[in-house]
Amino acid sequence: MNQSTLLIVEDDENIAALVKKYAEKAGFRVIVALDGQTGLDYAEQIDADCIILDLMLPSISGVDILKQLRKTKDTPVIILTAKVEEVEMLLGLELGADDYVTKPFKPNVLMARVKAILRRSQSNLNNEKTEIIQVGALKIDGAKHSIWLEDKELEFSPIEMRLISLLASHPGQVFSRDQLMEKIYEGKGKFVFDRTVDVHIGNIRKKLGEDPKQPRFIQSVFGVGYKFKEQ
Predict the structure, then answer these.
(1) Cβ contacts of residue 96 below 8 Å, gap of 6+?
(2) Of 3, 124, 148, 176, which residue is least crowded by CB atoms under 10 Å?
């Protein structure tokens, strides 16, 4: 069985050591970077299965690392931060982070998040190897992690890809926010910030060029959640 690699980018040595200890106990191969530049170098050079990324880092911020990383890789990223302001969390998610954990945190909860994301990624590889979803001018290719709209390829983060694939494969079915997060995080949705799904849906709509008042694809169902419009 292949050992998954976890990259921890955290400048607090005590926190980095604590996360490393729990991650190794959980069976991960762990690489630690204690500053932003080293973290970016490792993220670009190493094929990590998941990255735990602090936002406040010396030399390069976690936000800038994420911006740079998303130009070339879709590695799952969990933001680790002491800042609890909603705006900063939403900013991180808009840049393509998959989840976040606030300090102080319970290491076992963090490991549960990591495992859930990795299980979901592996499940996608196993179940979507040949699945292609075609809805009008929109084409979703799970195997190639690509989405095309009217012959133009769009860039989606892994979690955005999972969300739109789930909705598009069940046109007309209404999903609550809780249902979406439970499916995306495989039962770990209860740990996820309540607004997370709204942020991801908002990003998907922007990339699809949706008119919020008359969406072509993803519709809001007031008081419930979202559904993919039947074509």
Answers:
(1) 66, 70, 74, 77, 157, 160
(2) 3
CATH topology of domain 5-123: Rossmann fold (3.40.50)
Which of 146, 225, 159, 223 minimizes the C-alpha distance to 188?
Answer: 159
Which uninterrupted H or E stretch holds 22? helix 13-25
The CATH class for the domain spanning 129-228 reads: mainly alpha
Q: What are the sequence ranges of the domains in the chain?
A: 5-123, 129-228
Cα distance between residue 69 and residue 63, in whole Å:
10
Q: What is the pLDDT of residues 39-90, one digit of tens each?
A: 999 999 998 999 999 988 999 999 899 989 888 887 889 988 876 665 466 5
- Does the pTM exceed 0.85? no
Specify the pairing of strand 225-228 against strand 175-176.
antiparallel
pLDDT the model gives residue 162 = 84
Contact present, 157 and 74 (Cβ < 8 Å): yes
Q: How many angstroms separate the most distant Cα atoms in the chain? A: 53
Q: Are the C-beta atoms of residues 160 and 200 closer than 8 Å to each other?
A: yes
Q: What percentage of residues in the chain have a pLDDT greater than 90?
A: 39
Residues in the chain, pLDDT under 50: 87, 128-130, 187-191
Q: Where are the alpha helices (DSSP H) in 26-144?
A: 36-45, 62-69, 86-94, 107-127
By CB atoms closer than 10 A (0-12, 13-18, 19+), residue 71 is exposed
Joined together, the tokens standing for residue 15 give 């926190």
pLDDT on residue 93: 67
